[in-house]
Design brief:
Structural class: alpha+beta
Shape: globular
Helix content: 10-25%
Largest sheet: 5 strands, antiparallel
Number of helices: 5
Number of strands: 11
Order of helices and strands: EEHHHEEEEEHHEEEE
């Protein structure tokens, strides 16, 4: 079944995951698109990207929306006019969306060996708790990358550096949650981070902490 997983995080937040097994033609069938989206789709050179694009629209349908409800601001951040927040991610044969009453970001990443090679470019601040020889090292690096990507999607500010401005707190894979801090341009913002695994992919989503 292409709708691979639904996570009801709380009554106000739902995550939907699609496994892209269909052909382009199968995904296109019965899929109304606004003109801007149709032009964007036809301009994609990769069929994999086209199928991912359409699978996201399938997820929107599953959640009671359509392509006509989805808009993008000047910075490319997706939004609905009804005030509900959305974030989107896709990687290889999976796509995902998160819908929430809170501003949120989501990222989906395949767990790959090569992340170890670039770890120094984004996870220097986390080296105090990472163990390169541990069996969960790649999993943890993937969570850290996903958390920073999700935070960037929430804030959407030019100049944010994963390495220099965002730090993820120590965590265990089994906990499936942690926290993170963004320190950027005299702003200090805390985030709640949640993560899960979908086959050999890591799903991470974030919320800006609410003031009490």
């Amino acid at each position: 079944m292409p709708l691979h997983k639904i996570i009801d995080h709380n009554p106000d937040t739902q995550i939907l995951v699609w496994k892209i097994t269909e052909t382009f033609e199968e995904l296109s069938q019965g899929m109304p698109l606004k003109e801007k989206s149709a032009v964007r789709l036809s301009g994609m050179k990769s069929e994999l990207h086209q199928r991912a694009f359409l699978s996201v629209r399938k997820l929107l349908q599953q959640a009671g929306y359509s392509d006509f409800d989805l808009h993008y601001d000047a910075f490319g951040k997706p939004y609905f006019e009804d005030g509900r927040h959305i974030s989107i991610s896709h990687s290889h044969e999976f796509s995902t969306i998160i819908l929430s009453n809170r501003n949120t970001g989501i990222d989906l990443e395949m767990q790959r060996e090569k992340i170890k090679v670039i770890a120094h470019k984004f996870a220097e601040a986390e080296s105090d708790f990472l163990e390169p020889e541990a069996t969960d090292y790649i999993q943890k690096l993937t969570v850290i990358w996903g958390a920073k990507e999700a935070i960037f999607k929430i804030r959407n500010e030019t100049g944010i550096s994963f390495k220099d401005h965002i730090k993820v707190a120590a965590f265990d894979i089994g906990q499936k949650q942690t926290t993170a801090m963004l320190n950027f341009q005299q702003k200090h913002i805390a985030f709640d981070i949640f993560f899960d695994e979908v086959e050999n992919f890591t799903l991470v989503y974030a919320f800006e902490k609410q003031s009490v």
